[in-house]
Amino acid sequence: GRRALSERLLHLRDDGFARLGDDAPAFTITADVASTRAGIAREITGTYQVPRYLSGTGAPGSEFVLGSDGLPTHTGTYTAPFRCVIPTSATGANPAAAGLYGHGLLGTAGQIGAASGVASQGNRIFCGTDLIGMAQEDIGNVVQIVQDLSRFNTLADRLQQGHLNTLFLGRLMIHPDGLGSSPSFQDRGRSLLTRDLAYYGLSQGGIM
What we know:
Strand order of the largest sheet: 1-2-3-5-4-8
Structural class: alpha/beta
């Protein structure tokens, strides 16, 4: 029933955020470039750290490492990618709300451009990550699952880690020590981000 459907994902959420405490996830900015999209000033890419509950490095085909209670156990740290679009309307005096973007079927955070219109019209900085389990890098594993359904858990397990990654990105966007502490998300030393967080997903991202 409900427990079978949600217990592991809720455990990931509760255990992951307990490990994080009141902090922001550690992150690194890898690129900050001017955007050619209408209404968008800059596009930012980077990575951030999330507690990992998958075998190995958490790559496609990995699965939960389960404890004696049947719940996923912490196995290390997963480095997740993010990509953001900052609208031209966002300034230190007029900071933007935060938005999480959910990409389409077997896509990537690189599809963040689809949120550009919503970002510019609503003065909202959107960021997205790869929803691992059903991201582009999982296509090869999905093909193998179709040929051998006994491997389906490798999709479900990584997908739940992907949901935790998405939740951590939300914390990263609204925490004072998160993205707003980086010069890439500041205007004259003032954060471009508020604590107003919303979710916007298309196709697979909408279903999730």
